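Kindly inspect the following:
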Amino acid sequence: VRRILRIGFARSEVKRNDEAIFFLNLKKGIKMISELNINEFHSVLDEMTFEGTPSYKGNLLIFFTINFSDKPFYGFVSKNEFAISKNSNIKSMPYLIRGNFKKFEDKTEVDYEIKPIKFGYYWIKIMSIIFLIVALVALFVFISTFYHYGEINPIILVFFFMLFLSIFANVDLYLKKKNFEKLFLKNLKIKNF
């Protein structure tokens, strides 16, 4: 009886693990269909992409990737894979679209995922919180040195200002991601099944 229970338990664990892996893979990549055939898709994506390393656009190395191209994407396109970021010289784009494409009837099936470029993403997300803490500590030290201990009005003002900046930075990060995905989908005529 114990042996049967062990086998049944092991099978149920394997089944749960397979389901978990399936759902992780499902969330990991987004499969969509482009109205363009595979050759058109490849040529349009290649024409719209300035060649370079896309992860440089999301961190401090953005200054080494300055170009005056009017192409909307920066990255590489191979025979059936691509990795692109938004082509911007001044504003950092902390996201990267990486994926592949293959023929699907007379259209193109595109499997892609939007990944954060680690340094740029965490720089924007974490630095606003660090600036908030540093400003509060510095202001508290300044006020405790030069003013009486009961006066905290400037601390509250600076706290709310830095909190607003922190929220603004995170909302801006979210909007950058959504706008980048919209630009990608619109230019390559990609729609859901």
Observations:
- The longest strand covers residues 95-104.
- The two ends are 48 Å apart (CA to CA).
- The CA atoms of residues 42 and 78 lie 8 Å apart.
- The helical segments are 2-28, 38-47, 118-146, 153-187.
